[in-house]
Recover the amino acids of this structure.
């Protein structure tokens, strides 16, 4: 049995790690400290969350004239690093990771997380060695990861990749690199937002995704 894909590319936040709660708690601390309305629940968060992160912050009411984004970003990172210590891997992620390994599929991570922070988190989960490559940003501002995706495409010119993510930005990233895209609900975007990504495959769970993969992507 062989996959129609040559490479599997994973997003990290919200796809590999279930860190939605950590993301909400972290930004709510910044909002509360500035007297701004906090995010009430995961559903509200998933509707609001977007890339670039600076636009997400702007939509929450942060005043960049009073406090620049470059000042707020490291404050959020400090909160997140503390809050995400208890964030688990997404349910069924390890099973899918292992099944792809059994198919001898090279697996990679492309993330808008700062590269050193990303590698530490993967190391903490004990899975960094499961990936052929890990790509993250050289800063903490999380503007976009499409450039990383283009770099991957340029260095893997014969690749037919599947990008697995949880946000509309993951879909944009997949498009930028000419990859197919599977979006898993339960991460940082609402299902409604994921379904608006025309051309992406949207699944309620990793179980549903892998059942589809076995039926349609193996030869």
């Amino acid at each position: 049995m062989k996959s129609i894909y040559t490479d599997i590319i994973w997003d990290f936040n919200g796809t590999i790690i279930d860190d939605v709660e950590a993301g909400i708690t972290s930004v709510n601390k910044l909002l509360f400290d500035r007297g701004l309305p906090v995010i009430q629940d995961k559903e509200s968060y998933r509707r609001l969350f977007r890339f670039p992160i600076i636009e997400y912050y702007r939509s929450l009411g942060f005043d960049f004239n009073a406090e620049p984004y470059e000042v707020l970003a490291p404050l959020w990172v400090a909160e997140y690093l503390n809050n995400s210590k208890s964030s688990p891997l997404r349910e069924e992620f390890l099973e899918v990771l292992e099944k792809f390994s059994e198919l001898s599929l090279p697996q990679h991570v492309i993330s808008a997380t700062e590269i050193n922070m990303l590698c530490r988190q993967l190391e903490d989960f004990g899975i960094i060695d499961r990936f052929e490559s890990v790509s993250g940003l050289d800063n903490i501002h999380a503007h976009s990861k499409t450039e990383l995706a283009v770099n991957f495409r340029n260095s893997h010119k014969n690749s037919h990749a599947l990008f697995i993510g949880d946000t509309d930005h993951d879909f944009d990233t997949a498009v930028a690199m000419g990859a197919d895209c599977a979006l898993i609900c339960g991460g940082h975007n609402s299902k409604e937002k994921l379904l608006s990504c025309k051309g992406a495959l949207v699944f309620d769970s990793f179980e549903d995704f892998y059942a589809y993969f076995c039926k349609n992507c193996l030869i």
